[in-house]
Design a protein that fits this description.
223 residues; alpha/beta; Rossmann fold; Arc Repressor Mutant, subunit A; 5-stranded parallel beta sheet; 8 helices; 40% helix
Amino acid sequence: MKILIIEDDEAAAGFMAKGLKESGHVTDHAANGEDGFEFARHGDYDACVVDRMLPKMDGLTLVERLRAEGIDTPILFLSALGEVDDRIKGLKAGGDDYLVKPYAFAELLARIEALVRRRDPREVETHLKVGDLEMDLLARSVRRGGTVIPMQPREFRLLEYLMRNAGHIVTRTMLLESVWDYHFDPQTNVIDVHISRLRAKIDKGFEAPLLHTVRGSGYCLRA
C-alpha cells in the first residue's frame, strides 16, 4: 500500500514510516496541514494517517476540505486528544477511524489495513509483477522467470519502490526520500552502487533488461 503520513513531529513520523516500510508499504510524509492537503489531493494513496494538531492547517480542517472536494481516501486520525467528544469531532469531520496516542504500532497497522479492506473488499496488494519479475511482499521473496533472486533488505525496498512505479521515471531524489529516508543529497554514490547491484541480480543472465537508466532524469523499471 501507499500511505500518506501527515504529522509535524519528525521523530513520530519517522518511527511510523520505518514500521510501515518494514511491513512492505510505501510512505510519503508531510510535516504540516497545508502540505498534507496538497499531497492528499494530488497523490494516489491507499490511506492517510492524519495528526489532529498540525501547523498551518489543523487536521480537522484538512479532512473536511478533502471530503468537500470528493476525495474519499480512507483516513485514520492520530491524536493525543482522546476524549469521546474529540473522537466524535474527528469522525464527523470525515475521518474513518481514530487512534489515540500513545499507540501500539501493530494496532496502527491493523487499523490501516482494515480501512483499506473496508473501502475495497479485495485483498490488500501483497504481490507485484513487472514482466516476468515477481515480488511477494508477505514472503519477502523475489523471482524472475521462476528463478529465486536473493535480496538484501535495502535492495528489496529499492526494487519494491521501482516496481510500484513501473513504467514511470523515478528520480534520484525520489529514491533518496522513499528508500533511504534522506531529505537531502548525501553527495555519495549510494544509489549508483545499489542500482548496479540490483541490475546484476534481476537482469544479468535474462533475455531482456527490465531496469533502465534514463540519462539526466533517473531510472525506470519496465517490461
